Amino acid sequence: MLSTKLFESGHFYRRQCPICKSYFWTKRADQVYCGDQPCVPYGFIGNSPVRAAVDNIRDLRERFLSFFERRGHARIRRYPVVARWRDDVFLVGASIYDFQPWVTSGAVPPPANPLTISQPSIRLTDVDKVGRSGRHLTGFEMMAHHAFNYPDKYVYWIGETTEYAYEFFTKELGIAEDEVTFKESIWEGGGNAGESFEVLVRGLEVATLVFMHYEVKDGKYVELPLKIVDTGYGLERIYWMAKGSPTVYDAVFGPFLSAVRQRLGVPEPPADLLGKASVFFGQMDPEVLGLERAYDEVARRIGVSPQEFRDVMRPQEALYVLADHSRTVSWMVADGVVPSNTGAGYLARLLIRRTLRGLWLAGLEAPLVELFDLHLKYLRDDYPEVWESRDVILELMDLEERKYREVLKAAPSLVKKALERAGRRALGAEDLVELYDSFGVPPEVARDAAKKLGADAEVPDDFYSRLAARHQARKAEGEEASKIPVELAKVADLPRTRELFYEDPYRRSAKSRVLRVIDGRYVVLDATVFYPEGGGQPADRGVLRHGGGEAKVVDVQRLGNVIVHVVEGPAPREGEEVVGEIDWDRRISLMRMHTGTHVLIQSIRRVLGRHIWQAGAQKDIPFSRLDVTHYKLPTEGEIAEIERLANQVVMSNVPVKALTMPRNEAEAKFGFIIYQGGVVPAREIRILRIGPEDAPYDVQACGGTHLSSTGEIGPIKVVRVERIADGVVRFIFTTGRHAVDYIQKLDSDLSAVAKALGASREDVTSQLAKHLDKAAELERRYKRLAASYADLLAERIRAEGLPKADLAYLELDDEDLARAVAAAATSKNPRLLLVVKRGDRLELYSGRGIDVGPIAAELRKYGFKGGGSKTFAQGVYQGDMEVIFKALRSLLG
Predict the structure, then answer these.
(1) Which of 275, 277, 539, 639 fits a disulfide with 556 by CB distance 3.0 to 4.6 angstroms?
(2) What pTM was computed for the model?
(3) Per-residue confidence band for 288, with pLDDT thresholds at 50, 70 and 90
């Protein structure tokens, strides 16, 4: 039983709900039910219990944050919606996600304690209900206050948390004291758990107060060293209650909905009908009943026909989906998500296509880019970072809508092939998922296409929720498998290897003591100058010199806390002193590549936009690669500007500094851009800053070896740019002397071309253009002559008249000429079957009156290996042509 001083001294009663069996606390002695859906209906629609004047949603947010600031909480800035500091999820689903796992595990302190925040969050668990239920959203702001209680530092716990909630709703918002109910529950999320109170007002859950003190391991609760107050107050839900609107969408997105209804010519629905629909839908369980049946049941309860109800609601549902999804997608894109087929990009595309699908089903037509732009104007004040990304958001929406329309065109043939593969006259849920995941075909489109083919397809009510569940968690990668056959147990007792390559990246050699030699190949030293492979940077190579000779170091890997050197040749003895010397020319080249990578990605970001994030990198010599999130190939002008900007940073010779900082301090100082290269699993992280402290050019968490200034990089040259996946562009580049070598090679090639053209290097472009013009003219002349020659050959063809066709034979080595002759001959004689032999190749051409398909099939009996269409077949035949002629005469006789 959860109890507090508030309940004991404030004359609260503990009751058990007869429907859901949950225990709850209330000030009303006569309250029977818990006050939650579906046990009671909404009681606030058209009759708000909020007596305070709440002008807009911004006012409500500010009331909440100021309320807790006055009570000793530090207000902190909202985090991004993309959880780049986590390796288990793509998106932030609640304010506690901001502090998992580092703060909640006790590894790092919170940014403030206690604190308050209003965190934009995204959940796609109930995406299929969005637009229909009246209350579900994919994107919402979770207002929260958090306290982190350590064994040696108590902040506050259940009593104070409950009192804060009660005071906020009754004193700050003016809700009557007996309207607030606290329902006991258990909460789990993000690997943590704890007892909780759900705060309920007139049938609506407006807050959850979680007292987190468990970690969930293998399905069991394990006590945490911390006791964490994790609260969530739904900004949009509380505002809905304050407004008393028929739906949460009308409350939150009211001005936008009015504007978009006017733009699309959709009349505003009766408020009474919408309000009743929200009340009745809230009391149903669509997971059991099904969304479509729930629609029918709501219509029955309201007293209208299901069809009439659908006619009114379908366009409104499409607009509600548009309002919610467009805000959520805009948040995502502003945080660097590019719609694609993987990761967070997949989830963004899912929302975009569900929006387009809703508009299509409702028969509403308008460019998506126009509708998004309309909404962005209303989001501008609350989310300035979204408005700053307006151009890229609109460009992406235009691109995504064009892709979607291409999918709709291709859908009938894709569905036909899916039915053929399935070998049945119906598509199941998994078939529809495959059609969407592989080709982007919406389930309703697939169903309609299947029906036109005389087949069926049953679309699950939770189709999009199923898709989201498959893709919204990052795939657990676990620890990377060791690249060397050495068990951790064999080195677990050794002290951490001293990393001299960090202490001085320019150090080329060092004396060290051999701590262990395993299998005569794997050497562990007490200190090393050899960098182990990691962070996209290859391992150093070099030699270990010792009393027994010299061992070549061919690989270096981390294994737990030690660094293992893989050697070839005589290994040193345990306990002896060795001198390790790295291949300096290779190391300095890799340092140039690695520091150059940081300069390049920031240059790409500044030219192409803030949505650019690293999607992968490999530093190597002579060329390195950098993969970034981008939705199209950059133009030549953009690539040139990226190169210019990167080399300008090189020539400015700005300082490069590596800093080791507490994780929270680094995040607070530099932002989450530090995770450009991925998640760094450490309490303290190594930060690489390029440029002065007050105006750095680039800042990232990085474990590689780097130069001390950008001037040492030398030239940065982009070699090639290519699209390697949907939403990912690869830059192949080089730096330093390798860049000089590459440029000299281009220079040499240019000289060779100039010599071949008989022109100076300066005139190569103009002279090449002239030669190309001449070549094009020769090509045109050749085609004219070839056409004339083909006509001449066609005239000379002598065909053997047979009852079903005229048979002719020709031997030609030129494929294009053969096709031209066949086209001319068959156009003049539709009964002609022309056989053309080219080495081992055999081709059959026919006029409109002859079907080559069955003929080619029959010839396969005689050794012909091939097939074709109605008027053309080709293949290989290595036998006697008389056999073919005999067969053809038999077929055509």
Answers:
(1) 539
(2) 0.84
(3) very low
